[in-house]
Amino acid sequence: MLGVVNRILLALAGLVLLAAGTAVLTASWPLGGRHAPLLTDEARRRYWHAEGWWWWAVLAGLALCVLLALWWLLSQLRRSRLRAVVVDTGDGAFALLRGHALEEAVAAEAGALEGVARCRVALRGRRGSPALRVALELEPHAVPADALAALAGPVLTHARTSAGLAGLPTEARLKVASHRAQRVT
Fold first, then answer.
1. CA distance linking residue 88 with residue 93, whole number of Å
2. Exposed, middle or buried: residue 176 (CB in 10 Å: 0-12, 13-18, 19+)?
3. Quick check: 50 pLDDT over 60?
4. Neighbours of 138 (CB within 10 A)
5. Is the pTM of this model over 0.85?
6. What mean pLDDT is reported for the chain?
7. Among 10, 58, 150, 182, which has the highest number of CB atoms less than 10 A from its own CB?
8. 137 class by beta-carbon count within 10 Å (0-12 exposed, 13-18 middle, 19+ buried)
9. Which of 4-18, 34-48, 127-141 is predicted with the least confidence, judged by mean pLDDT?
């Protein structure tokens, strides 16, 4: 959800900046018309002729800002999840395992563990070397060490062997499900 909000705010900020840049370049409404100069003669004489390096520094700074903004925009649009994993079939060929299928299988198996209320799994990394990010929401009575051991043992071993991977690095985040306090009467 946060990623969607981030992209919407980024798009709105981009539209506002695009409109402001277009207004400055065309010298329209906020600047007094198309034929009005952006800088007065006195300002041009003072900055352009007195110190010639000043304009080059301003242009370099603006170019750096544009490059950083483009880098940020591209990093926002890049997908963080892995779409497929390369699986060796044993006969010299390779098959592609859908990343979403592996995520669902691990989430179903981890969600069935004792003490786990909910599980979310995200597959990250590269096709040849995937990694998992597992978020376990534990029930109030669950023991975190037991849930982590059950995840690290049979669940991840099953995922590794079924995908034909030598290793599957995993980051697990544990959280306790919210619950109401029990009253003693």
1. 6
2. middle
3. no
4. 21
5. no
6. 82
7. 150
8. middle
9. 34-48
